[in-house]
Design goal:
single chain; 6-stranded mixed β-sheet; 4 helices; alpha/beta; 8 strands
Length: 169
């Protein structure tokens, strides 16, 4: 039997702005280059369905692993509710592998059943939902839409570029 909340989450579209993806990439790339560590934190969603990231300390000292403290997650959850936002789930990066949950991810991740994974090399984001069906855990990829880049405005032929000039007199 499918839970109504599960069905609602799988039908909803989630959005990521280019700016937010770039912010995630820069932090994840830096961690990857430093010592193959992962970045992690919580995914926050606003009323329009846009996801933002709150980076938290990675308590794991091992490369390619992450560990969050539940107290840090709960603290963020309390602080965002007053702004009309809610905690969607957690996120982390994969420094050297695809954005597919590993067995360790499936066992230890998925706060609130949602995990966003970022593949640093492939620059790919995937949003996953983990559902429990009795003793079985089922993974489902949720729709994630990357905001299209805005093209710079083109100047018309007759337009002249304006310059600021000053004269010292």
């Amino acid at each position: 039997m499918v839970n109504k909340n599960d069905r609602r989450q799988s039908q909803q579209k989630y959005f990521i702005s280019n700016r937010e993806k770039l912010r995630l990439h820069r932090r994840a790339y830096k961690a990857q280059q430093q010592d193959h560590s992962e970045v992690c934190g919580v995914s926050i969603i606003d009323q329009r369905g846009y996801i933002s990231f709150e980076f938290l300390k990675n308590y794991s000292a091992q490369p390619g692993r992450y560990a969050l403290r539940l107290s840090d997650v709960r603290s963020i959850k309390r602080s965002i509710s007053q702004y009309g936002k809610r905690l969607l789930g957690t996120f982390h990066s994969h420094p050297l592998s695809e954005a597919i949950p590993s067995l360790r991810d499936r066992k230890n991740g998925f706060y609130r059943g949602i995990e966003l994974i970022y593949d640093v090399c492939g620059r790919e984001l995937k949003l996953w939902q983990q559902l429990s069906r009795g003793r079985k855990k089922i993974l489902r990829e949720l729709p994630l839409v990357l905001e299209k880049r805005r093209k710079p405005k083109r100047r018309k032929k007759g337009d002249q570029q304006q310059f600021c000039t000053s004269s010292m007199g």
